[in-house]
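Quick one, T. Sequence first:
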Amino acid sequence: AYSAIYCDAKAWIAGGYIDFISPQLYWSFDTEVAPYAELCDWWDKALEGSDIPLIVSHAAYRCEEWNNPDEITNQIEYARAKKSYLGSAFYGYSAIRTNTGGVADCLKEIY
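Structure tokens:
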């Protein structure tokens, strides 16, 4: 995002300019180019030493394409173990409303 739209989230964190950060971690654990765990770990480390909480944005709309029915549950559980974690946000609502890929069932179970 920095070189494309000139947003510098790390500077925002360092300067205390934001109340929270909610990165869109829309990849699965097994995505080769951007594995969920590495991204979640990176954001947690970026927030180290700040009082800015992490609200992970999850891709509810991608649950159907992931081959693991527990993917989103595993992501939430993984994020909950991070020091800076405050909560999760989910995109898009229509997948949750229609229970696409069983996402609503997963969310009911974990919450």
